[in-house]
Specification:
The protein is mainly α. The chain is 39% helix and 3% strand.
């Protein structure tokens, strides 16, 4: 009887896993919300535009950590091992491209314009480009 019960549990588990796969709905591995908190003490005013300003990598490391970036991205310098987004250690983006990606999002990544100031975005971009080695 115990064998039958174990087999039944295993079959039910497989059915439940199978039911969750390929169910016609499109889904994205990107989170709908961002984990962590975003510091609000950075200057730079938080509005639109921006890009191309020189950031402070040390300050960007703090924003990367407190903003929850590591929950999606791998970046060895930050001790981050997220697997939802790209491995930033392998990124070839320059600072301007990194700023634009952080600002506008895309490819499953949420936009952080309005959540981070222009200065914070520049700082995170500078940190990621510098830290990837």
């Amino acid at each position: 009887m115990a064998r039958y019960l174990a087999l039944l549990v295993a079959v039910l588990a497989l059915v439940l896993v199978g039911a969750g796969c390929g169910g016609g709905e499109e889904s994205s591995p990107a989170p709908e919300t961002v984990e962590g908190t975003v510091p609000t003490d950075g200057g730079g005013g938080g509005g639109g535009g921006g890009g191309g300003s020189e950031g402070d990598a040390a300050a960007g490391k703090e924003v990367f950590a407190s903003g929850g970036c590591g929950s999606c991205h791998t970046l060895a310098d930050a001790g981050a091992t997220g697997t939802v987004g790209p491995n930033l250690d392998e990124s070839t983006a320059d600072v301007a491209a990194a700023e634009e990606q952080i600002r506008a999002g895309g490819g499953g990544m949420p936009a952080f314009e309005g959540q981070l100031s222009d200065e914070e975005i520049a700082n995170v971009a500078a940190y990621v480009v510098e830290a990837r080695g």
